Amino acid sequence: MKFVKYITAVLLLTLLNTTIASKRNNNQPVQQKLIRDKAMLAEKHFYVGISFLKLNKYQEAIENFDSAIKYKANYSEAYYNKGICLDKLGQYQEAIENYNLAIKYNPNDAEAYYNKGICLLEL
Q1: Parent domain of 81
Q2: Which of 14, 25, 79, 94 could form a disulfide with 101 if both were Cys (CB 3.0 to 4.6 A apart)?
C-alpha cells in the first residue's frame, strides 16, 4: 500500500513539474504543447504500469496501461504489457485482443506473436 502511495505521489509531482515547465515556455503553439504533454502522460502511466506488473499487481497495472493508451492510442508496448497482465489473470481472450493490437501497431513484435500463441493454446 505504501508503494501505491509512493507511485501516486511521484506521478503527481511529475505532472505538477510538467505543468509548471510548460507554463514557462509560452513560445510554442498550444497544440504542440498538448501533444507533447499527452505523450509524456502516456509514458508516465506506462512506467507506473510496468512497476505494478513487476509487483504482480496486475489490476493496477492494467489501469495504468489503459491510461497510457488513452493518451497514446497506438502505444504497442502498453497493449503488449496489458496482454501479459490479462494472461496472468487467466483472461486469455482479452489478452489475445491486446496482443493483436500490439501487433497491429508494431508488426515486428515477435514476443507479442509468441504470447498470443500461448494464449490460444490455453483456450
Answers
A1: 2-122
A2: 79
